Amino acid sequence: MPIADNTDPKPIVPSLSRSDDHVAKRSLSGASIAGANFADPSVIQTSDGKWYAFATRTIGSVTHIQAAQSPDFKTWTLVVNADGSQYDALPSMPAWVATGPSTTWAPDVMQVADGTFVMYYSALAASSPTHHCIGAATASSVLGPYTPVGPEAIFCPLDRGGAIDASGFIDNGQRYVVYKVDGNSIGHGGACNNAIAPFVSEPIILQPVAADGITFNGAATTLLDNAGASDQGVVEAPALMKSGSTYVLFFSSNCFADGHYTLSYATSTSVMGPYARAAQPLLQTGDNGFASPGGADVAVDGQHLVFHAAYNGGRAMYRAVINVVEGVVSV
């Protein structure tokens, strides 16, 4: 998901809350927002109670992966270096990533049992530089810097368009990675390159992994695919959570660039599915004043959600608290 350029190197991520602490409804003016561009955010809380978020790079920036931090999930600031320049959580790229201007997307950070932090990220593949693949990197502290694992990507189905938008999930001790096969990159044009029939499949895949969060330890399962024209051929940005006995798969559909983008969800009684889409999106353009909300991630607690929406030529991060009642999600 490419993002618009933003020249402010140290903006504050907007996150102004309503009194009920649900969807953070921002003001449309005010220096505190400063046009922060923090797309495809992921969120993690560490054992000391602090919160951290990671995001897609900003076009024109040499920073591969942005990072932000918060003491309370409400007030967020970008992480910067001692000289005031923006901190890069993933400063070095492995051999499989294309050289030249970097296009790194959609990071997600999880902590595994031995205390290691694992980052999943998407980047252009050197062997096919119009397609992205997903790599993994590790660090001993949540902010890193993260070091790529091995010389190869972990998910790289180039014959199907590549892969993007990986997100970790743990259920009863079993770890998973959910991601999107990037059919957009070989689509037939229109909105986000997949809105013209025949629509290219871009399934959301669930892969069981071992305790290290990286090694495969079971067969992959398809959870969802685009529904053709009604999705503009696009589903992406998967994130899983569990509430009681209900599994909730958050995803975005339609093209992020034209106002039809949504934050949607589907539910199942099994992590492997089948998943049934909710009757309407959780958030769409016009809700709470948002434009093109999507790209969500949910914390391990299954309650704290971050997402982006269009703002000031880029995409800013917002937050929400999730409520699930009888399989229906609200924020």
UniProtKB/TrEMBL annotation:
**Keywords, ordered alphabetically:** Glycosidase, Hydrolase
Q: What segment(s) does the record annotate as region Disordered?
A: 1-20
What InterPro entries does UniProt report for this protein, alphabetically? Answer: Glyco_hydro_43, Glyco_hydro_beta-prop_sf, Glycosyl_Hydrlase_43
- Which Gene3D superfamilies does the record match to this protein? Glycosyl hydrolase domain, family 43
Pfam families of this UniProt entry? Glyco_hydro_43
Top-level taxon in the UniProt lineage:
Eukaryota
What's the family?
A: Belongs to the glycosyl hydrolase 43 family.
What is the protein named?
A: Glycoside hydrolase family 43 protein
Q: Which organism is it from?
A: Rachicladosporium monterosium
